[in-house]
Amino acid sequence: MKKLSFYEKVYAVVQLIPQGRATSYGAIASFLGAKKSARMVGWAMNNSHFLYPPIAAHRVVNRNGMLSGKAHFGDGNTMQKLLEAEGIEIKHDQIQQWAEIFWDPEKVL
DNA sequence: GAGGTGACTGCGA
DNA sequence: CTCGCAGCCACCT
User: Fold this and answer.
1) Between A6-16 and A38-48, two packed helices, what is the crossing angle to 10 degrees?
2) Residue A1 banded pLDDT, cuts 50, 70, 90
3) Can you give the pTM of this predicted structure?
4) Are A6 and A34 spatial neighbours (Cβ–Cβ below 8 Å)?
5) Which nucleotide is nearest to A29 (CA to C1')?
6) Which residues contact A77 (CB under 8 A, 6 or more apart)?
7) What average pLDDT does chain A have?
8) pLDDT tens for each residue of A50-97
9) A28 touches strand B (CB under 7 A)
10) Is the CB of A11 under 7 A from strand B?
11) Which has fewest Cβ within 10 Å: A6, A34, A74, A109?
12) At the topology level of CATH, where does A6-104 sit?
């Protein structure tokens, strides 16, 4: 029985996020069974840039819907541009209609 | 082996 | 309302 690392599971969830939707670190962490381990999700995202294919880390934001990790995408507007390309409206580095854009992994189950 | 860090979150003052 | 602290687990030095 192969036990996947915490961040390996994060990648699986992020890849399941449908286009035009987004989720939060806490939602993923909670889905994995460690609600308070949202930091691990962020750590996984940091490593995501070394992964191939690159996972949609831009679809993962903090629980406020704010692009907390936009600075890690190289430029300060890359993450926002990617989200806007998927039809997500962003204002002041924050996702508009976050309640509708929010995608809960548990909902898929 | 031990200590410090981190793309977060929740609660208390 | 705003600010600060503790918890969580994996990775890096």
Assistant:
1) 70
2) low
3) 0.91
4) yes
5) B8
6) A70
7) 90
8) 888 889 999 999 999 999 999 899 888 999 999 999 999 999 999 999
9) no
10) no
11) A109
12) Arc Repressor Mutant, subunit A (1.10.10)
Distance A67 CA to C4 C1' (A): 22
> Residues of A from 41 to 60 whose C-beta is within 7 A of strand C: which are they?
43, 47
C-alpha–C-alpha distance, residues A17 and A30, integer Å:
15
- Integer-rounded Cα Rg, in Å, for chain A is 13
CA atom of A24 to C1′ atom of C9, Å? 18
Helices and strands (H and E) in chain A: how many: 6, 4
| Three-state secondary-structure class, residue A7 | helix
> Token pair of A56, please?
């949609």
Q: Which positions in strand C are less than 7 Å from the protein's CB atoms?
A: 7-11
- Locate A107 and state its tokens: 């909902």
- C-alpha A89/C-alpha A20 separation (Å) is 10
Q: CA–C1' span, A24 to C13, in Å? A: 30
